[in-house]
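Shift notes (night). Ran Ubiquitin carboxyl-terminal hydrolase 48 while the centrifuge was going.
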Amino acid sequence: MAPRLQLEKAAWRWVETVKPEEIRLEHIELAYRVNLPACKRATCRRNCKGNPNCLVGIGEQAWLGDIDENAFHNIDDPNSERRDKNTFVGLTNLGATCYVNTFLQVWFHNLELRRSLYQSTFSYPVLSTEQYYEPQSICEHLQYLFALLQNSNRKYIDPSGLVKALGLDTGQQQDAQEFSKLFLSLLEDTLSKQKSPNLQNVIQRQFCGQFSYVTVCNQCGRSSALPSRFYELELNIQGHKNLTECVTEFLKEEKLDGENRYFCESCQSKQSATRRIKLHNLPPTLNLQLMRFVFDRQTGHKKKLNTFISFPEQLDMGPFLEGKEDQKCVYELSAVLIHRGISAYSGHYIAHVKDARTGDWYKFNDEEIEKMEGKKLQLGTEEDIAETVKSQARKPKCSKGYHCSRNAYMLVYKVQEEENADPSMTNVEVPAFLQRLVDQDNHKFEEWCCEMADMRKQSVDKGKAKHEEVKELYELLPAKDGR
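Came back to this:
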């Protein structure tokens, strides 16, 4: 018989011999085991149901065991918000602003653009330690944001000032490619008002190339060229497998006939003709937009092309250039912007960017930043996107030095530098006036960290005091005779 059943049987054995009118207090105490000795601590594995004086297993483990300080507060460690050494700073996603964050990280890593932006002069007020700086113009916001990205103590910073200045709706995802165009155009217009010619033309020097639309009349053979500037090449990817095919189609000859005939100045009439694009000059930073978001005539809406496109780490644009043999035309991949998702109206944007100083690749995903191993771009996980069975496509094998993606929508190539290039060009110093503002923000962050640490300590101290108080109560149990 189990010990508990034996105790119960012994406690009620007197019922067999004692009449109801003869029941006394001692019988009641015996039946309910009131006088059983208390169990000694650590002798029972759990609370004894057969002994009302057993005080084991009623919650004392939480108070008599090892102290877990985290149980005394709900305040995260403020140091988890602190930037790790030799890492970059992330950007907070304000709702649907991941597309903005990706471009900001790409532009921040363009050292020439960052250096020129730092050199631009705007009106900065002299602030006391009690005052906090609020940028006014968009360029001031970008200057300050870049300075924080470079020297902030925070793990990530809030870009809401710039986003608000741009008038963007934080709850609605905009067209990323259109945003890139408009922002660079706005930046170009603002910097054109600077006194220094180098600053006035920095956007053109970095991103602007030249091509011309060349039209040849089929009747008289007259050739006419219409020069044009570009800040990015918009490449159709439909029906293509690699970047070379996309560039080739961009430059291919098209026929102008029927209603699309060309008015020839020599013939003074509309004539059939051929037209193609001739590339003349390429910028140091070559932006290639892969046109993944296209208009679907059947549905009347935009759709995303989840087509795999392979692209090289080193791109030779020489075969596509017309003339100017002395021009540098070998480029190295410096950034890949990714759209994760199968719809043109939703999804998430991230950026893979190469550090110009070290050659290391980093993945920028809003607040989170991950360094790639072995100085190599790794896109693997970005391609594992849930799709319908019909749209699933097997990823093609990529040759060495190539990458393959069905989510890359923008490729950024930088012209290959000479091996003996000046290493000082990779060092961009934050100007003193901006550094003072960064120091001010870092001081606020350190004050917040101290405040959070003090709150944590107060909560822990209160918890420990309560812990000791309860331990003292347990020491008084079980009650001794006469108490």
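DSSP finds twelve helices and 20 strands in the chain. The longest strand covers residues 330-340.
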